[in-house]
């Protein structure tokens, strides 16, 4: 699990690694959770949940599901082919 680019700083951290794992586990069970549902189930602020999803877990919302932001090489190639075929129609 990445450290989210956080640097050591004085004071209480806004979230812990356990909370990151808890959100990840909730998304493993159902990727259609909203930020507010995840916040309610974990007891975190919705802005903290959004930060964990985007920065720590590398997720983004696509068609109402949280999906990994990175594409594999095969997915990149398929995306390129689909765009090329679509462009060829016009």
Task: Give structural notes.
The protein is elongated, with a radius of gyration of 17 Å. Helix content is 53%, strand content 9%. The termini are far apart. With 90 residues, it is mainly alpha-helical. Strand 1 (59-62) and strand 2 form a beta hairpin. The protein has a domain at 13-62: Arc Repressor Mutant, subunit A (Orthogonal Bundle).
Q: Based on the structure given, which CATH architecture of one domain is correct?
A: Orthogonal Bundle
The proportion of strand residues reads: 5-15%
Distance between the termini: 44 Å
Query: What would CATH call the class of one domain?
Result: Mainly Alpha
Major sheet: order of its strands? 1-2
Order of helices and strands: HHHEEH
CATH topology of one domain: Arc Repressor Mutant, subunit A
Kindly name the structural category.
Answer: mainly alpha
Described by strand count, sense and barrel closure, the largest sheet is: 2 strands, antiparallel
Q: What's the shape? A: elongated
Counting DSSP E segments of at least 2 residues, the number of strands comes to 2
Unreliable residue runs: none
């Amino acid at each position: 699990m990445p450290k989210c680019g956080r640097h050591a700083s004085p004071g209480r951290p806004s979230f812990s690694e356990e909370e990151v794992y808890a959100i990840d586990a909730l998304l493993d069970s159902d990727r259609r959770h909203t930020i507010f549902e995840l916040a309610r189930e974990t007891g975190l602020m919705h802005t903290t949940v959004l930060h964990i999803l985007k920065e720590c877990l590398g997720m983004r919302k696509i068609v109402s599901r949280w999906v990994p932001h990175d594409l594999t090489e095969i997915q990149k190639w398929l995306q390129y082919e689909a765009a090329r075929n679509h462009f060829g129609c016009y």
